[in-house]
Amino acid sequence: MKALVINCTLKGSPEPSHTDSPASVVADRLVEQGVEVSFPERGDVMLSERSPQAAG
């Protein structure tokens, strides 16, 4: 079995996010159960009201 852990945050890199710790706990527990876990590095994406991406 495989799992992808996606952590979304409003904090920009390299500032630590409060959601990093719980996401790591989830990933660790899955690994203990034999699950192959992917935990991609966080990338910064800025969205604003003027951004075409925000219009969605």
Helical coverage, percent range: 25-40%
Q: In this structure, how is the largest beta sheet organized?
A: 2 strands, parallel
**N-C termini distance:** 33 Å
Shape: elongated
Q: Structural class, judged by helices and strands?
A: alpha+beta
Classify the beta-strand content into a percent band: 5-15%
Uncertain spans:
none
**What's the arrangement of strands in the largest beta sheet?**
1-2
N-to-C order of helices and strands: EHEH
Compute the number of strand runs: 2
Number of helices: 2
- Mean pLDDT across residues: 80
Radius of gyration: 14 Å
Give a description of the structure.
The chain is 30% helix and 11% strand. It is elongated. The chain has 56 residues and is an alpha+beta fold. It has helices at residues 20-32, 52-55; strands at residues 2-4, 36-38. 0% of the residues are buried. Helix 1 links the parallel strand 1 and strand 2 (36-38).
Summarize the structure.
By secondary structure, the chain is α+β, with helices and mostly antiparallel strands.
Which features does this protein show?
single chain, 56 residues, alpha+beta, two-stranded parallel ribbon, 2 helices, 2 strands, 30% helix, 11% strand
